[in-house]
Amino acid sequence: MSESSRDGVQSWSESMSARDRIRAVAETLREPQSVNWISEQADAAWSTTNEEIQTLVKQGQLRRIEAGETTRYQPDYTRLLFEEIRTLIAENTREELRNELAAITEEIEEWQETYDIETWEELEQSFADGDLASDELRERRDVITFWRENEEDRRLIKHALELYSDVEATREQTTDVADRAAS
Questions:
Q1: Most CB atoms closer than 10 Å: which of 49, 92, 109, 134?
Q2: pTM of the predicted protein model
Q3: Neighbours of 180 (CB within 10 A)
């Protein structure tokens, strides 16, 4: 038994299959990467990585990008966007989404008031002020991170609310068809 396992902590190679690790790496790529790079990051055999990558491409989860002599892969960001919106709709009521949107807006407004700014970019520009202490810099860095996350969440929630009725209608239609087929 490894020392980390004895301490109750497992490495991801002990807690996840190679294919799960490959998917985890592939789904979080920020820029196109090669099979070799993904294989190394996932701590998986090249052949297993290549097989799993080709499966993900066939499923439409990854896109193949030819860069000269090298083939690289990246997530299909459009698909990920719609999956995230679909999940928001499936897991939340309209009211819950509206409440979260209000909470996000309120938090951003508090930061705007606290720092007397309108955008996180303006807060970032304040780093150039030479008279900020290190704890103030850390606090502002954290606020910028949360602010950017909030803006992304707000964007997704707005999309989810815009599409909510359409998704509900499609779900109802699918349920009706399934009910008719079962009877």
A1: 49
A2: 0.66
A3: 8
